[in-house]
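Support request, please re-run this one:
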Amino acid sequence: MARRRQKHLFILALAIGLVGLVGVERLLKHFDLPLTPVWPAYYMLKAVWPGDDNQTGVGASMPDTSQDTSQTTGSAAEPARVMFLHHSTGWAVWLGNTSEAAFKVSGKSDVKSWMAVYNKTNNTSHEIEQMSFPTTGEGYPWANYPYDYYNIWVKHAGDAPYRGEPTLEMLTKEYDVIIWKHCFPVASILPDTGKPDVDSDEKRLENYKLQYAALKEKMRSFPDTKFIVWTGAAPTVGQLRTAGPMKALRARQFFDWVKSDWDEPGDNIFVWDFYQLETEGGIYLKTGYASGLRDPHPRPDFAGRVAPLFAQRIVDVINGKGDSASLTGKGG
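Re-run finished. Output below.
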């Protein structure tokens, strides 16, 4: 009897705790206060809580094709050549609900098919391609973190590839829009040392910010090209060894900084907020959207829901609405 009572008390305490965490979230949001590192348990519970399809969106409607005249670059009538640089997470979104076998046969993916429908509906002729970057074909590591983009595009800029990887001088000659992103290990952020180093490949906020500052200056030197940078991707709650709560909280801090400070209106650089779609305000990829508890690759059903939002964001940027439209691609 005593054991049963203890068990019931434990279940009751857990239930009260869950309700309390939800109440804390509402209070913090009401007073516009951040969900600080005091609440790592809150984020872990939030990651496993069932997702809300209204948060992620189920597909995306065709966007308003009117052009925002406050942005001087780009025109809805001009065909744009788009290059999407990615690794495995980006590949999952590119495919969406399309299987790899179907893609190999048809060459079509959810993103590419969406763009084809958009072109037909709006009498446009935008082209979108994808490429693994870095490719590692000539020895560059399989790493697409802030250091790597800085290393290839800033530190080793020029008209010749660096270790087989194309520089921005090369890519901007071929494409009007260039999209780049990081895979989920970017979230395994260590504490700052107080000695930031732009040439360091250590995953620290102080290094990331210097590398992003250099990348922004570099991208702005190509004013005729538009750039879209993804936030994210997020780790899963099961990756406690590589992305425990403090590391994951630093990742959220970084991507919040990218959106609020680094990204500025009026230039040729824009953000797609993939991190928000994955986490819905938390610090981990929602478990229902992940391939596994320790596998942060998006499930096909989730990828299928956000692929149209990605395509929506691209055409918003092409049409000169990058600073005014939703960062997630919703409501275009």
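The first helix runs from residue 2 to 30. Residues 55-318 form a domain with the Rossmann fold fold (CATH 3.40.50.1110).
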